[in-house]
Design a protein that fits this description.
The complex is a heterodimer of chains A (about 550) and B (about 280). Chain A is mostly beta strands and about 550 residues long. Chain A contains 2 helices and 39 strands. In chain A, the strands form 10 sheets. Chain A has a 5-stranded mixed sheet with strand order 1-33-34-35-36, with no helix packed on it. Chain A has a 5-stranded mixed sheet with strand order 3-7-6-5-4, with no helix packed on it. In chain A, β27 and β28 form a beta hairpin. Chain A starts with a helix and ends with a strand. Chain B is an alpha+beta fold. Helices cover about 35% and strands about 10% of the residues of chain B. In chain B, β1 and β2 form a beta hairpin. Classes of the chains: A mainly beta (about 550), B alpha+beta (about 280). Chains A and B meet through β28, β29, β31, β32 and β36 of A and α1, α4, α6, α9 and β2 of B.
Chain lengths: ~550, ~280
């Protein structure tokens, strides 16, 4: 009682001052190299997760020390509530969201929750709590920001817009129907006057799509389906339009963007039914593909499929990294991705021309060599069967959604990767299987490591084994990474340490034992002359700065 | 799509007895008793609904609703998936879709429509929840060939014997668990630091072994946790754990894996050999 009264008084006292809206974030500033702001999931539009800051560098990193901790507050008391559901559901206490930082305030989310936190102190400004109608609460990757407005997606497939200053809801729009097992986790991407979003969810065989919406009204500007419809030549890669419509391919991570080309690049997900491919013969375009969409029209400019006719839940929903650099001695606009299939791909991002494919690890057995176009050619003998097939990697892939990083300083592409095995059992032998259609039993992860790749050759320049537990690797290797002009790569070691690695050889120069592995992509920014490094691990965000 | 779901699939809990036929396609069967219905659905209603659907809708939509000669798959239909307790399905059945060749089914009573809806929703739920999937009969291998693989030079018999450590192995594990253990018989192979992984995995005798040599002495035990910065081991005799700080190569640490032969073989197995060895070992009851 006393606490509540006290709280109200504070709010009243501070209300008028806080209520004055600032100028907000000019959409033109979104996508600029992150220095004193962090305005997108990956800091800018390139997906590189590289910072030019170097106050924290190979020499000074030893003085890196804890500045503050913010533990996720899921409580209803004091929260601004919204939503269509009756009651809150249990929280998902693992932060996969990347906090945006604008004007000294951090904005981030978890399923059904969004927060604003003071970037100097780690103290909460406001907490928004969405009462859900359901959906899989596996994660939420963050918010988008446009002027004074924030956007996030909910597990029950609503796009919610909040006032960044107060956390008050402006509107919410349904983007898909949760009864069809859609659930949404993506961080919305703001590009000019468009808001890009995509739902996820492959428990049922439902259509996948990418939408551009109006950030003021939430209305749809264009929608691109991740599989072809009648009249499109790509429909020849499916047995029927019905199978293509049901073919999913959800693009459930934020994409990258080249303002000069006006192209939005995003990876698409696996086809449906997920593991039982008998009703969808063909390559199943544009699932498991890297696609380039015209930002103005939503039309497909080009696509490159990383696993034709996937039958193992692999996808191209990993960080799409835009590199402006040399290839065979000539400057080119490039696009790189290390993905779940166990391969590193390099493309020309103007045309989609394939440049190289190299394996990230040993033991990959789901494909037999590469096509002329560098695509791994699936081994049909490794499709799930009733008595089981042993496949490497397992369905979580050699790597996964946690973002990789590319440092233009070192010229290296960094990614966490594993060698893993699973048994895949076909459970739905019907000619028209549904959903996943097969069960998976993990045999285990045999190796996990952080790898540095020369993007021009695809060769591994160095790799560092992650920590171990009683049964070997204790993580699947995939981890959110950040590289900096200070010559550092920040990530984890698979056994609960947050580590600053030397970018040239992977030597750990600094670490903090957080007890659990980092669970989001680290970020960095300058505030009041001080460089901060932030990371989420489990239910908390940790901020570090030099002492 | 997302790894924590894939890892959460609990196969052991839905395991049928060895040799039990798969039930996924049971809707095609005449045997109504075999219809799989998740607990939260009214089983009698779903079973009735299957019959009503087969009789009235089966010609076009298939007896299991997954599509037939001319009609689309009902379990994939947005209208069906978004339906609440047969209301939207009932409205459509009243009028049909004359433009698309679907006649009216206005003669169906409300209770019958509800039964159809229960059947379809129960099957959609089964499709959507991987934890309810049923693995079929995996004992398809040739036990004789399995025996020769088991006994081949450098093979399983180098360490194991069906008369000693593997005595009665086919009774101790169901076939799916057995096949998994042939590949890697380690309980704590779940991923993630925490229960089942880092915290209890060292109770498994097959845990990684560590040897630490300091200027004071030599310490051996099962590995609890190894990082670049420290190492923790567990002594199964005393039950104590002990930690050491690491700095570069000090102290010297050696890790060995009692299951190295299993791990190495993961990269070599072909599926036929695996099925044959599973069939061979499953016979020792």
């Amino acid at each position: 009682m006393i606490g509540k009264l006290f709280f109200s008084v504070i709010v009243l006292a501070c209300g008028p001052a806080l209520a004055q809206p600032g100028p907000g974030l000019d959409p033109k500033d979104i996508g600029k190299a992150p220095v004193d702001m962090w305005t997108t999931y990956n800091g800018d539009y390139s997906g590189r997760r590289f910072s030019t800051l170097k106050q924290i560098n190979q020499d000074s990193v030893k003085q890196l020390s804890l500045a503050w901790v913010y533990r996720l507050n899921f409580g209803e008391v004091g929260a601004i509530t919204g939503g269509e559901g009756a009651a809150p559901v249990a929280a998902t206490p693992s932060i996969k969201s990347v906090p945006l930082m604008v004007d000294g305030v951090l904005y981030f989310s978890a399923p059904d929750h969004a927060w604003a936190v003071d970037a100097r102190t780690g103290r909460e400004r406001w907490h928004y709590f969405w009462k859900t109608t359901g959906g899989i609460h596996i994660g939420n990757r963050g918010v988008g920001i446009y002027k004074n407005w924030l956007y996030f997606l909910t597990p029950d497939d609503y796009l919610v817009s909040l006032d960044a200053a107060t956390g008050k809801e402006r509107w919410h729009k349904q983007i898909a129907n949760v009864r069809r097992e859609y659930f949404s986790t993506m961080a919305p991407v703001v590009i000019g006057d468009k808001l890009l979003i995509s739902p996820g969810g492959d428990s049922l065989d439902v259509p996948g799509f990418v939408e551009a919406r109006n950030p003021e009204t939430g209305d749809v500007i264009w929608r691109w389906y991740t599989t072809p419809r009648k009249g499109d030549p790509a429909l020849a890669t499916w047995p029927s339009e019905e199978s293509a419509i049901a073919g999913a391919g959800h693009a459930w991570l934020p994409g990258s963007y080249d303002p000069e080309l006006g192209l939005y690049y995003v990876g698409t997900g696996n086809p449906n039914p997920v593991l039982a491919g008998q009703s969808r013969n063909g390559d199943n375009l544009w699932t498991c593909s890297i696609v380039a969409l015209d930002i103005n029209t939503g039309k497909l400019r080009w696509s490159y499929q990383v696993s034709p006719h996937d039958t193992h839940d692999f996808d191209a929903v990993q960080d799409v990294v835009l590199i402006d650099g040399l290839y065979k001695g000539k400057p080119r606009k490039l696009l790189a991705q290390a993905n779940r299939t166990g391969n590193f791909f390099l493309l020309d991002r103007v045309t989609g021309e394939h440049l190289l494919t190299t394996p990230l690890v040993q033991g990959l057995n789901w494909f037999k060599g590469y096509s002329a176009n560098g695509q791994p050619m699936r081994d049909p003998g490794k499709d799930p069967t009733v008595p089981g097939v042993l496949v490497s990697p397992f369905s979580s892939g050699t790597t996964n959604w946690p973002p990789a990083t590319f440092s233009p300083k070192s010229g290296l592409f960094y990614v966490g990767a594993n060698e893993s095995f699973s048994l895949f059992y076909l459970t739905d032998t019907d000619a028209r299987p549904q959903g996943y259609g097969a069960a998976e039993q993990s045999v285990g992860v045999v190796k996990s490591s952080l790898k540095a790749i020369d993007y021009q050759t695809g060769k591994i320049v160095w790799e560092r084994s992650l920590g171990k537990g009683p049964s070997g690797p204790q993580s699947i290797g995939a981890m959110g990474l950040l590289s900096t002009a200070g010559g550092l790569v920040f990530g984890n070691d698979g056994v609960g340490d947050f580590v600053g690695y030397r970018d040239t050889d992977g030597q750990p120069l600094w670490h903090a034992d957080l007890g659990v592995n980092s669970s989001n992509g680290p970020t960095t920014y300058m505030l009041d002359g001080k460089q901060y490094v932030l990371v989420g691990a489990g239910d908390a965000i940790y901020a570090f700065a030099l002492q | 799509m997302i790894w924590s779901i894939a890892l959460a699939v609990s196969i052991g809990s839905v395991m049928p007895a060895a040799g039990q036929p798969q039930q996924q396609t049971s809707a095609d069967s005449d045997d109504q008793e075999r219809l799989q219905v998740p607990a939260q659905f009214d089983r009698a209603s779903a079973t009735r609904g299957q019959s009503i659907l087969a009789a009235n809708c089966g010609f076009c939509h298939g007896t299991n609703g997954r599509g037939g000669a001319g009609g689309p798959d009902l379990t994939r239909s947005p209208l069906v998936q978004e339906d609440v307790e047969g209301r939207q399905i009932g409205e459509l059945l009243k009028t049909g879709r004359p433009g698309q060749g679907m006649p009216s089914f206005a003669q169906l009573r409300e209770a019958e429509v509800k039964d159809i809806a229960t059947f379809l929703h129960s099957q959609i739920y089964l499709n959507s929840d991987r934890r309810l999937y049923t693995i079929g009969n995996i004992l398809v291998g040739d036990p004789k060939r399995g025996q020769s693989i088991f006994d081949s030079p450098g093979g399983c018999a180098s360490c194991h014997s069906v008369e000693n450590d593997l005595k009665g192995i086919g009774a101790r594990f169901d076939p799916v668990a057995l096949q998994r253990r042939i590949l890697l018989p380690r309980a704590g192979s779940q991923i993630g630091v925490g229960p089942g992984g880092g915290k209890t995995g060292y109770l498994d005798p097959n845990a990684l072994q560590a040897t630490i040599t300091t200027h004071v002495g030599r310490y051996q035990g099962r590995l609890v946790r190894l990082s670049d910065f420290n190492i923790t081991i567990f002594d199964p005799v005393s039950g104590a754990t002990r930690s050491f700080t690491r700095s570069g190569n000090e102290p010297a640490v050696t890790i060995s894996d009692p299951l190295k032969a299993h791990v190495d073989r993961l990269y070599q197995w072909n599926d036929r050999d695996l099925h044959d060895v599973t069939a061979y070992l499953a016979g020792f009851k």
